[in-house]
Amino acid sequence: MLLTTAQAAEDQRSPLLLNADERGHVLAEMRGFLIAVHGVLQAVQKDDPAAIAQAARKAGRAAAHAVPAGLRDKLPMQFKKLGSETHQRFDQLAMDAESLGDPSHSLQQLTELMGNCLACHDLYRIEVQP
Ligand code: HEC
């Protein structure tokens, strides 16, 4: 979506003041989320619960990259809460795909967990500080 200058000026999102490395860390994590979403959707389409679980686990807690100490201190509580809940929900989706074997349930869980993507994207933007 292209923002006009007026819209950009009205940006209501709170800035996260990060250095370039920290920004890189957060954005890499984000691309991992997007890859996992795509992987789950592909596996749902193939009606393959094992592949759903495998794709979802890639964004689970175990896969989350260790957050550098300095970055952890800069992130607001709400951000950390939404972030860790998102990893947990991917884990739950993986476990349920394995135990229930029901891709339509996985799809529902994916739709719900993506509410977290939207909520956090509404709240925060990154601003690089040297
Ligand atoms: C805890 C907060 C949070 C959650 C949860 C979250 N994001 Fe993000 N995401 C961000 C922030 C902050 C940015 C940077 C936005 C900016 O600076 O304009 C971002 C950026 C991104 C980007 C751009 C990456 C790049 O390299 O430029 C993608 C893709 C993305 N998010 C996908 C997702 C997906 C998919 C989910 C859910 C599965 C998700 N995010 C959940 C906070 C979050």
List the main descriptive attributes of the protein structure presented here.
single chain; globular; mainly alpha; 6 helices; two-stranded parallel sheet; 70% helix; binds heme C; 130 residues; Four Helix Bundle (Hemerythrin (Met), subunit A)
What can you see in these coordinates?
The structure is a single chain. With 130 residues, the protein is mostly helical. It has one domain: Four Helix Bundle (Hemerythrin (Met), subunit A) (Up-down Bundle), CATH 1.20.120. Helix content is 70%, strand content 8%. Helix 2 (20-45) runs antiparallel to helix 3 (49-57). The longest helix is centred in the N-terminal third of the chain and has 26 residues, at 20-45. The model has no long low-confidence stretch (mean pLDDT 93). Heme C binds next to helix 2, helix 5, helix 6 and strand 2.
| Total of DSSP H or I helical runs spanning 4+ residues | 6
Whole-number average pLDDT? 93
Q: N-to-C terminal Cα separation, in Å?
A: 28 Å
Shape: globular
Question: Which spans of ≥5 residues are poorly predicted at pLDDT below 50?
Answer: none
CATH class: Mainly Alpha
Sheet/helix structural class? mainly alpha
Please provide the count of β strands: 2
Condensed summary:
With 130 residues, this protein is mostly helical. The protein contains six helices and two strands. The model has no long low-confidence stretch (mean pLDDT 93).
